[in-house]
Amino acid sequence: MSVMKRLSMIFKSKANRALDKMEDPRETLDYSYQRQLELLQKVRRGVADVATSRKRVELQINQLEAQGKKLEDQGRQALSVGREDLAREALTRRNGLNTQIADLRIQYNNLQGEEEKLTLASQRLQAKVDSFRTKKETIKATYTAAEAQTRINEAFSGISEEMGDVGLAIQRAEDKTAQMQARAGAIDELLASGALDDFTGQRDDIQAELDRMGGGTDVELEIARMKAELGQGPAPKSAIEAGQPGQAAQQAPQTQQIRQPGEGL
């Protein structure tokens, strides 16, 4: 296949797809119905024109028949006064009119037959147009209902273009929020570990080390508690008993020192 044929096929396929997307069946049906009405109107005008021509021929026949009757009367009158020549002339003219009348009657019959055919065609076309109008309105109502149902279903499922845009906006917002939360958490951890300097205030290295050791002690106590629950070790000791025996020993003498004056009293 040549390049031009491929380009032509691609163009036609894309144009056909664009036309399918742009086409509204309701508008197409309305246009077809309008064209049928125009055709019906033309047929009716044709019937009216033929009927007018038939009526004109009928009037001409009536006029010629009236002239023929007049010539016949004139012939009788001429014979009554002994003018045979005038009578012969009047009858000759009347015969000429009869020939014209005969031709007009043939034309009249033809026009009458054509008028009847067009009238029957107009009636049949009118019936088809009425049937098409009913079917058109039914199809339009069905299409409108199906379109509305499709939009509702797409809205519920989230696959419509509008809902899809909303879903993408929500997804981007959630992604950015999660990214900011992760960044904030990472910065907090780096500040706590000392990897980053906090320039908003004075840094206390001793307190930072105590916080770090305290956090590790809490983890060890939690692990010891879980082992005790599982029967894999003794119950965990408190922070004073486990890691600060000196402080526990110092608290007892202080308590005794506070009670001794009372005992003396």
UniProtKB/TrEMBL annotation:
Species of origin reads Microtetraspora malaysiensis
Give the highest taxon in the source lineage: Bacteria
User: Do the record's keywords include Iron?
Assistant: no
Q: Which PANTHER family match?
A: MEMBRANE-ASSOCIATED PROTEIN VIPP1, CHLOROPLASTIC, PHAGE SHOCK PROTEIN A
What Pfam families has UniProt attached to this entry? PspA_IM30
Point to the regions of Low complexity compositional bias: 242-265
What the record says about family reads: Belongs to the PspA/Vipp/IM30 family.
What is the name attached to this protein's record? PspA/IM30 family protein
Ordered alphabetically, the record's keywords are: Coiled coil
Region span, Disordered: 228-265
Q: Could you tell me which InterPro entries the record lists for this protein?
A: PspA_VIPP1
Where do the coiled-coil regions begin and end? 47-128
Q: Work out whether the entry's keyword set contains Coiled coil.
A: yes
